[in-house]
Amino acid sequence: MSEKIFIFDTTLRDGEQSPGATMNIHEKFRLAQQLVKLRVDVIEAGFPAASPGDFECVKNIADHIRGAQIAALCRCNVKDIDTAWEAIKNGENPRIHTFLATSPIHMRHKLRLTPEQVLEKATAMVAHAAKYTRNVEFSAEDASRSDLDFVCRVFEAVIQAGATTLNFPDTTGYALPDEYGAQIRYLMEHIPSIDKVVLSVHCHNDLGLAVANSLAAINNGARQVECTVNGLGERAGNTAMEEVVMILRTRAERARLHTDIVTEHIYPTSRLVSTITGMPVQPNKAIVGANAFLHESGIHQDGVLKERSTYEIISPKDVGISTSNIVLGKHSGRHALRDKVAEMGYSSLSEDELNRVFARFKVVADLKKEMFEEDLEAIIMDEVLRVPESFKLLHLSAMSGSRSLPTAAVKLLVNGEEKETASLGIGPIDATFRAIVQLTGTTSKLLYFSVSSITGGTDAQGEVMVRIEDNGKVVVGQGADPDIITAAAKAYLTGLNRLEYLKKESKRGMEAK
């Protein structure tokens, strides 16, 4: 009989630390709902002490989401722990997750504490957290570069103080799989009370080894993996949840371990995360990349046509990828649309949200010969998961040609007031962006611009992604439309609206202090 591996999803916390991947309260809640469908065991909803906005997001999820433990991250101090508990106390089996560094380099240069002071502080703060809940996790930050005997002392002490989960993170992505596995085995053999707790791992991908290190850890006794959807996260990211889950499922006879993840929700969740954060998934990404189930080689194509298992070790259906892409047409009704979006994993849409999606669907369907799942998904994201709109596109007209000056006329709703202007540019998109800047009075800098086709054909919707920066804050914006210039305008405005949201959150934080 196989043992269970607990999936601790930190997309909403560590995943959000990717540059530009900030999510608002509505987006976080929608993603938390999807993570429940995925059946993750723990959702780390955020870092409540970081800002009033983060506190509000975590509290909203804890108050209303059921079906998973809700965890809140906090530093090892009384104020952080109290704030975390206040945010999650109404959640289902809420977890306080507190951390303190144990490596010599962190203790000396960051904490400026001696090992004995770290031991004393960790023990006292875990005991404080345990006054609120029996579900307490302690993380030894930078554990993989720590003295193992010292980590064993700290872990045994926090177990006695009330910790029920111990996390041994590879914070900098420095460890190698055989080395990391041996470290986990050492902990299992040298901590007297290790059988009373769950040993967890949290690996970063700086050397591309996060998944490999996580597998090495669970092969040596760890029973919780902390991971993110699409491997999202700070720097090079974290352990990719979908890869760990599908490795354990595909090689079940070897691993003799399992998770409770409903794998059919993996791909819809991946797309949701990508759209909310504006972080596209690379085409050759394992499990959820666009090329993961495509075959171009003639030999491969011949083999797959004869028997899929010749070159496919995972069925696309197992991760929620439909084998039938054509879904609806312009004559389809509201009921058919409702059934299709539910099949795609969006059964929680409200009546108002469904009405907005249906109205936009009819407009796009009139322009396209065929509607694909990807088209419908782009509409859902654009209509349902929008950030609060300080700036809204009302009208856009652009002109360009080999013998004409690129010109754009734009009308926006700017904080409730209609404004319009026209501008010249190097091209129609540049002219559009210049007009938007004039109307919004913003000073942001465009760092990155990309455009792609959602589906094939000349009538395909274009998807634009931009990354913009203002006063050190970097955000991404996405937009989709059959007209690529309109898609670009939507993407730019989404980015500007995200910046406005962050400015308001920063102002709230300053006022709270």
From TrEMBL:
<protein>
    <recommendedName>
        <fullName>2-isopropylmalate synthase</fullName>
        <ecNumber>2.3.3.13</ecNumber>
    </recommendedName>
</protein>
<feature type="binding site">
    <location>
        <position position="14"/>
    </location>
    <ligand>
        <name>Mn(2+)</name>
    </ligand>
</feature>
<dbReference type="InterPro" id="IPR000891">
    <property type="entry name" value="PYR_CT"/>
</dbReference>
<feature type="binding site">
    <location>
        <position position="204"/>
    </location>
    <ligand>
        <name>Mn(2+)</name>
    </ligand>
</feature>
<feature type="binding site">
    <location>
        <position position="238"/>
    </location>
    <ligand>
        <name>Mn(2+)</name>
    </ligand>
</feature>
<feature type="domain" description="Pyruvate carboxyltransferase">
    <location>
        <begin position="5"/>
        <end position="267"/>
    </location>
</feature>
<comment type="pathway">
    <text>Amino-acid biosynthesis; L-leucine biosynthesis; L-leucine from 3-methyl-2-oxobutanoate: step 1/4.</text>
</comment>
<comment type="function">
    <text>Catalyzes the condensation of the acetyl group of acetyl-CoA with 3-methyl-2-oxobutanoate (2-ketoisovalerate) to form 3-carboxy-3-hydroxy-4-methylpentanoate (2-isopropylmalate).</text>
</comment>
<dbReference type="InterPro" id="IPR036230">
    <property type="entry name" value="LeuA_allosteric_dom_sf"/>
</dbReference>
<dbReference type="InterPro" id="IPR013785">
    <property type="entry name" value="Aldolase_TIM"/>
</dbReference>
<keyword id="KW-0963">Cytoplasm</keyword>
<keyword id="KW-0808">Transferase</keyword>
<dbReference type="Pfam" id="PF22617">
    <property type="entry name" value="HCS_D2"/>
</dbReference>
<dbReference type="GO" id="GO:0005737">
    <property type="term" value="C:cytoplasm"/>
</dbReference>
<dbReference type="Pfam" id="PF00682">
    <property type="entry name" value="HMGL-like"/>
</dbReference>
<dbReference type="InterPro" id="IPR013709">
    <property type="entry name" value="2-isopropylmalate_synth_dimer"/>
</dbReference>
<dbReference type="Pfam" id="PF08502">
    <property type="entry name" value="LeuA_dimer"/>
</dbReference>
<feature type="binding site">
    <location>
        <position position="202"/>
    </location>
    <ligand>
        <name>Mn(2+)</name>
    </ligand>
</feature>
<keyword id="KW-0432">Leucine biosynthesis</keyword>
<dbReference type="InterPro" id="IPR002034">
    <property type="entry name" value="AIPM/Hcit_synth_CS"/>
</dbReference>
<dbReference type="GO" id="GO:0009098">
    <property type="term" value="P:L-leucine biosynthetic process"/>
</dbReference>
<dbReference type="GO" id="GO:0030145">
    <property type="term" value="F:manganese ion binding"/>
</dbReference>
<dbReference type="InterPro" id="IPR005671">
    <property type="entry name" value="LeuA_bact_synth"/>
</dbReference>
<dbReference type="InterPro" id="IPR050073">
    <property type="entry name" value="2-IPM_HCS-like"/>
</dbReference>
<dbReference type="InterPro" id="IPR054691">
    <property type="entry name" value="LeuA/HCS_post-cat"/>
</dbReference>
<keyword id="KW-0464">Manganese</keyword>
<comment type="subunit">
    <text>Homodimer.</text>
</comment>
<comment type="similarity">
    <text>Belongs to the alpha-IPM synthase/homocitrate synthase family. LeuA type 1 subfamily.</text>
</comment>
<keyword id="KW-0012">Acyltransferase</keyword>
<dbReference type="GO" id="GO:0003852">
    <property type="term" value="F:2-isopropylmalate synthase activity"/>
</dbReference>
<keyword id="KW-0479">Metal-binding</keyword>
<keyword id="KW-0100">Branched-chain amino acid biosynthesis</keyword>
<keyword id="KW-0028">Amino-acid biosynthesis</keyword>
<dbReference type="GO" id="GO:0003985">
    <property type="term" value="F:acetyl-CoA C-acetyltransferase activity"/>
</dbReference>
<feature type="region of interest" description="Regulatory domain">
    <location>
        <begin position="392"/>
        <end position="513"/>
    </location>
</feature>
